[in-house]
């Protein structure tokens, strides 16, 4: 029920469900997604804030190795990504399959706003993925000139 409330962006329903069963905050579905993954993916800042107040695992990984920060960046939700970073989400490996950092993903999506925020918060511009590529390599491959110039 909590997953449906999160996906439906029903903050009040989420609050009621968590009050009745706090363990649901870190429950996982078959792909190991938590409610925080879904809230981050859908860009619901109020639900992300509420889940974090109830000790949601900020760096939880899905079976594919994706964190809530990964999903917020993938969907372009800069305010959610910034909140997760400010609350301590890891900027290092946010996708274990590719060994991408948050910066790699921001370079791939072309989000200069997110990329700048990550660098301002200490992201390592020289970090390499499984193939030895940095965020600059990824931006070049994807043709994101603004990001290439910034990096």
TrEMBL record:
SUPFAM superfamilies on file: Ankyrin repeat
PANTHER family hit by this protein: ANKYRIN REPEAT AND PROTEIN KINASE DOMAIN-CONTAINING PROTEIN, ANKYRIN REPEAT-CONTAINING PROTEIN-RELATED
Gene3D superfamilies: Ankyrin repeat-containing domain (1.25.40.20)
Organism in which the protein naturally occurs: Glomerella acutata
SMART domains to which the protein is assigned, alphabetical: ANK
Pfam family, one: Ank_4
Protein's name according to its UniProt entry: Ankyrin repeat-containing domain protein
UniProt entry keywords in alphabetical sequence: ANK repeat, Repeat
Membrane spanning stretches: none
Classification lineage: Eukaryota, Fungi, Dikarya, Ascomycota, Pezizomycotina
Swiss-Prot/TrEMBL ANK repeat ranges: 31-63, 64-96, 98-130, 131-151
């Amino acid at each position: 029920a909590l997953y449906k409330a999160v996906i439906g962006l029903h903050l009040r329903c989420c609050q009621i469900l968590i009050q009745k069963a706090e363990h649901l905050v870190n429950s996982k579905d078959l792909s190991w997604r938590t409610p925080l993954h879904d809230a981050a993916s859908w860009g619901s800042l109020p639900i992300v804030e509420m889940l974090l107040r109830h000790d949601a695992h900020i760096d939880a990984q899905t079976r594919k190795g994706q964190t809530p920060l990964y999903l917020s960046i993938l969907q372009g939700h800069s305010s959610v990504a910034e909140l997760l970073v400010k609350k301590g989400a890891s900027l290092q490996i946010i996708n274990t399959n590719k060994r991408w950092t948050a910066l790699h993903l921001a370079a791939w999506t072309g989000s200069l706003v997110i990329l700048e925020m990550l660098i301002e918060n200490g992201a390592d511009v020289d970090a390499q993925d499984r193939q030895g590529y940095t965020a600059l390599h990824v931006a070049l491959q994807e043709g994101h000139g603004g990001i290439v110039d910034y990096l």
